[in-house]
Design a protein that fits this description.
With 273 residues, this protein is an alpha/beta fold. It has helices spanning 11-23, 39-43, 65-82, 119-133, 156-167, 185-198, 214-223, 245-251, 258-271, and strands at residues 2-6, 27-29, 50-53, 87-93, 138-143, 145-147, 169-172, 179-184, 203-206, 211-213, 227-230. The radius of gyration is 19 Å and the shape is globular. It starts with a strand and ends with a helix.
Length: 273
């Protein structure tokens, strides 16, 4: 069996590549960009097998709108049009549920071109639509906030752990009740191959299905001796609980959580200082 991971230099792509290699289920092609070389010219010349499209921008998308669309849509379009693969799994985001009445995969979604922060959501949805309209064997995995020891520096939790372990104190800029869904990278890399090879639906939410609040994180930090403060009149920034019933029914629920992995994550960031 052949697997191709595009975006293998990133957090999720690198961990997925390692997991696929460790399972020994097949060959893994994980090309990395090199200066002066058009990576996609090489990719389009190969038999790719089962492709995981992990290419994307996250925290810096507001400052790089053209690169965001290029990563989420334009490169994908070339691959769908000219690539030779058995299946393609496109990594999207649960961020697209902002303003939706439900977080089920069938939800009607809402975006506004006037909201410059929505260029991420709009481009991800365009990528999803392109996949599902292509007539090819494609699936969409909408990921929530993925956690692990090598999270990107711009990641909220990465900044929390780095600051807390380095200084022994942390100031939250959002309210204690602000909450998100955090899903372990170990669960993510277990689910993605299952979705690619066995999934019966076109779209899956890849999430823990439970939100963890800033207050919960603060309490865990305080048990580590970190002094935690919340800014006065800090704004509430809370995400809806993600519906993971489809994922759980087919492949089982999350085996880990932020609470379970907190000690290990704190230790990882303490050791990197």
């Amino acid at each position: 069996m052949m697997f191709t991971v595009l975006g293998a230099a990133g957090f999720i792509g690198s961990q997925l590549t390692e997991a696929l290699k460790n399972t020994g289920v097949g060959n893994v092609y994980a090309p990395l960009r090199q200066e002066g070389i058009n990576l996609f010219d090489e990719v389009l010349e190969r038999e790719l097998g089962h492709v995981f499209y992990c290419i994307g921008l996250t925290a810096n998308f507001r400052n790089r709108p053209f690169d965001t669309v290029d990563a989420h849509v334009c490169l994908l379009r070339r691959l769908l049009e000219r690539g030779r693969f058995e299946s393609l799994t496109y990594l999207s985001s649960t961020r697209i549920y902002e303003g939706a009445a439900t977080t089920h995969e069938s939800a009607v979604l809402h975006v506004s071109p006037e909201n410059t922060g929505h260029i991420y959501n709009i481009s991800k949805l365009m990528g999803e639509s392109l996949c599902l309209s292509s007539g090819l064997k494609t699936r969409v995995a909408r990921l929530s906030n993925v956690i692990g020891c090598v999270m990107p520096q711009q990641n909220f939790l990465s900044q929390v752990f780095k600051t807390a372990s380095n200084t022994g104190q942390l100031d939250f800029l959002t309210a204690p009740s602000s909450a998100k869904d955090y899903v372990s990278i170990t669960d993510v890399v277990r689910w993605l191959p299952q979705i690619a090879l066995q999934g019966v639906h076109s779209i899956y939410n890849v999430a823990s299905g439970k939100n963890t609040s800033n207050a919960d994180i603060a309490a865990m930090l305080e048990r580590k001796g970190v002094v935690v403060r919340f800014a006065a009149e800090a704004p509430l920034w809370s995400f809806p609980v993600i519906d993971t019933s489809r994922l759980a029914q087919e492949f089982g629920g999350a085996k880990s959580s932020l609470i379970c992995e907190f000690d290990n994550l704190f230790s990882c960031y303490s050791q990197t200082q």
